[in-house]
Amino acid sequence: AEMHAMRLGDKTGEGQVLCCLGAILRQLGRYAEAVGCLSRSLALHREQHEPDEAGWALYELAALFREEGQFQQAERHIQEAMTLFRNAGDASGLAWMQMVQGEVVRSYGRYHEALAYFDQALANFRDLPHEQRSDEGYAWVLRDRGTAYEALGRYAEALADYEEAQRLFTTLGLRLGQAWVLSDQSKIYVDQGKYELAERTGSEAIAIFREQGARRGEGWAVDVMGDIARRKHNLNDAESYYKEAAAICTAVGDQGDQARVLNALGAIAFEQGAYPVAKDHYEHALVIAHAQEVRQIEGRALRGLGDVARAEHQYARAEDYYLQAIAIAIELD
Fold first, then answer.
1. DSSP codes of every residue in 191-236
2. What does pTM read for this prediction?
3. How far apart are CA 213 and CA 208, in angstroms?
4. Are the beta carbons of 218 and 237 closer than 8 angstroms?
């Protein structure tokens, strides 16, 4: 389709196809290729003075940079896209951008603020004229709001959002959406001590992610399997899962999730009494989390380093790490 549009000199069509291709590549975790397609799409639509089409290319770029952990770059694209959609009177585009803004804020660990964005996006999706309604957008925001509820320990509300999102994804036949929700549900079941249900749900999510070739989602679901194994005190299995998840995160360039998995590997090493190894993992996670401004993961790394210092009888250093972790916890509510 892209080649056909190029032969016809249809730059609008070429830009639209490149945007669609970039969106697919993003969902597959092939970020470098996706950036190339989306950047070219954006340039074509700007050249043709098509602000609404440019806004959708910016949406995909913002979502991509958010997934990669490049939050400041994501926010720049979000603000530009919001301006374009607002000037074009595109209420649907604004709702999608509010969702991505909420995702960025959630990634920083500011969950109450993220909930406000998700609630606003849901309201705007509901208020769209019938011909502009997007059940897909509504489902993704429900899933996002559920993850914020889950992070705050509001499991009943999270599961209710996941159930409705899953219903919509199933009706729409969106397999990746189904897999993400299954993985999210599995994480809650771990926290609730429902390990068999968590393992069954997580395995189903992994199967779909692999079927769809979605490496980032696979890494997330494998990480949850590590959490299950750790809760069941199968430390060797947990370590294997976490190492697999870390390899996937590194391969797709997902730095935020890489730091989160490094914290998990640090916790495993600590439980095994391998304090120098645990310290290395926590320090690596801390460097990444600090650079990406992912405060929640940074705080977890600091707490882990405090545990290591305490175990090694370095009490002044442990206190310093713990105080830094507490300051982040207070900052994030």
1. HTT-HHHHHHHHHHHHHHHHHHT-HHHHHHHHHHHHHHHHHTT-HH
2. 0.86
3. 8
4. no
